[in-house]
């Protein structure tokens, strides 16, 4: 039998056993999925809140823009 001689410190190291990355892949995918859910929820909450505030501000602005000329003219 021929014995192989190992030279340390040279060349590319050989991988004897591939790492078990299946568990890490599932964990990363789970974290990514949860992060996307949180981001979607925050965007929805932000959009609804900003939409309602914008509606109220727009309504008040329209009332002022229509009512101000009427008040300044002294009524109809």
Please, could you describe this protein's structure?
This protein is mainly α. It has a domain at 25-76. The chain has one helix spanning 22-73. The mean pLDDT is 82.
| Low-pLDDT regions | none
The oligomerization state is: single chain
Through-space gap between termini: 113 Å
Extended strand count: 0
- Shape from CA axes? rod-shaped
| H-E string | H
Mean pLDDT: 82
Radius of gyration: 34 Å
**Tally of individual helices:** 1
Share in helix: 55-70%
| Estimated share of beta-strand residues | under 5%
Global structural class: mainly alpha
Main sheet attributes: strand count, strand direction, barrel closure: none
